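hiii, so i know i said id send this last week but things got crazy w the move. better late than never?? heres the sequnce for the chain we talked about at the cafe, plus the structure i predicted for it. fair warning i was half asleep when i ran it
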Amino acid sequence: MKKAVFFDIDGTLWDEKMRVPESTAAAIHKLRENGTYAFICSGRSRAAIQAKTLLSDIGFDGILAACGTYFEYRGEVVYERTLSKEELLELTDCFKRQNQPLILEGKKHLYGDMDDFSDNPYILNLKKSLGDGFVSFTEHAGRYDANKATSYFRGGDLERVKKELSAHFDLIFHTTQVFEIVPKGCSKASGIRRVCAYLNVAHEDTYAFGDSVNDIEMLSYVRHGIAMGNGTDVAKDAADYITAPLWEDGIWEGLRHFSLI
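okay and structure toks below
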C-alpha cells in the first residue's frame, strides 16, 4: 500500500520570497520516484497556487487547497466545496457592517479591493503574481465563486464577528487581525481524510509537513506530523517531530528521518 506526504506551502516549501531550496525539490523528486504520493496541502485557494516552481519544476500528485475545500488529483478536480449564495451573503454582510476589508478565495480568482490593501506587501505581491486572477471585490459583487476567505481586520467589533459567523464558519487566527474563514468542519485534516479514502491510503501511512496555525489539525491528524524548525510554537506542539528549518534542508532531513527517501 502506498504512503502519502502532505506539504504546506508558505514557510514549508518556500520562503516569504517564494524561493524553494534545491534540497526540497530534490527530496520531493526522490520521494515520488520511490512510489510515495506527494500532495500540496495549503490554506491558499487553487487560484493562488500557480507557481511554475511548485507545479512544473517540482511536481506533485495532487493539490489540497483552501483548507481542505478543494481536492485535485493529477490535474482533475475530485472535490470542491464552494460557498453558497447564502453563506457568501452572510459573510460579506457581516464585514460590511464592520466596515472591514475581506478577500474571497476561489478556484479561479481571488476577490479583493486593492485600495484596502495598499500597505500590505503580501497582498501586493500576491496580486502581482496572479495578474488577472486577482479581481475587484466590489465589481464582482453577486458573482463570487469562492471556497473560503481571509480577513485583515482593522478595528471594528471582532467579538461580534466571531459570534455572527460561528454557526456556519470556522475562524483560524494567524494574528489578532489576520484570520482565515472556512466553512464549518473544513480543514486540512478533513481534506487529507478525503484524499486517503479516494486513494486507499491507510492512516498509518500518512505524513505532513507544516509550520503555522492552519497546519495544527493536519499535523495532529496524520500519523506522522512534522513541523519545520522555522515554524510557530503551536505547530511544533502539534507535531510528532521537528525537522530543521526550511533553509537548512528541513524537508530533506524530515523525509530522511522517516526513511521516505
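btw The two ends are 17 Å apart (CA to CA). thought thatd interest u
miss u guys!!
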